[in-house]
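Hi team,

Below is the intake form for ABC transporter ATP-binding protein from Chryseobacterium lacus. Please confirm the fields before the structure is written into the shared record.

FORM ID: S-0412
PROTEIN: ABC transporter ATP-binding protein
ORGANISM: Chryseobacterium lacus
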Amino acid sequence: MIRAKKIHKSYGDLEVLKGVDLHIKEGEVVSIVGESGAGKSTLLQILGTLDMPTQPKHFGTEIALDGQSFVNMNDRQLSRFRNQNIGFVFQYHQLLPEFTALENVLLPTRIAGKNEKESLEKAYRLFEDLNIADRIHHKPNEMSGGEAQRAAVARALINEPKIIYADEPTGNLDSKNADDLHRLFFDLRDKYNQTFVIVTHNPNLAEITDRKLVMKDGMII
Ligand SMILES: Nc1ncnc2c1ncn2[C@@H]1O[C@H](COP(=O)(O)OP(=O)(O)OP(=O)(O)O)[C@@H](O)[C@H]1O
Ligand SMILES: [Mg+2]
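The structure came back. Fields below:
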């Protein structure tokens, strides 16, 4: 699903990623762990096309999602590629506060120009699946942290992305809500063969993923 070679990232003199190689298979749930500042979020942002590696030509960097290389795409191509192929879940749900949960979840389908009726049906199904059907017309500030985070997962899933990147998705939740969300990731994998890459400081989650990648000193060890 993901093949990446020689990813480098520097901020000025600070070399955050020193040639990361990575290979993720379809349907895998992979965790990335490591100390604060190890470069986990930086790596996830680059894999997710939200940030660019440093001097990819010089280093011979290659990153491909499902065989499609995106390192040389321009901004417009990247936005489109991201909208169609990649879902994100962050530590704070990042739902837009002035929109309802449903409107938030539908946004990526509108950007992609998908059929409204089909998208609506899919959204309703997802809200049922994620057990938040009764919160569908609520705004984020009228939802609990766990509910808002599940709506964020619905938003990540709605365009049927090839891969979902999650950066400390349960870092802001109590242990019950965190466990529920972790279970949800595995349910989604079992049901849809959804691929997940999850950055986490949560040892319980890291232990139950298919593979745990440890980042240290700008490398995966
Ligand atoms: N935009 C930026 N400009 C300069 N330095 C940055 C920038 N983004 C990140 N860094 C630095 O890069 C290093 C890696 O940051 P990153 O956010 O990837 O760490 P992390 O492993 O996700 O840490 P945490 O577990 O605390 O979230 C840190 O030293 C950070 O200060
Ligand atoms: Mg981080």
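SUMMARY LINE: Residues 11, 14, 16, 34, 36-42 surround adenosine-5'-triphosphate (ligand 1) (CB under 6 Å).

Thanks, M.
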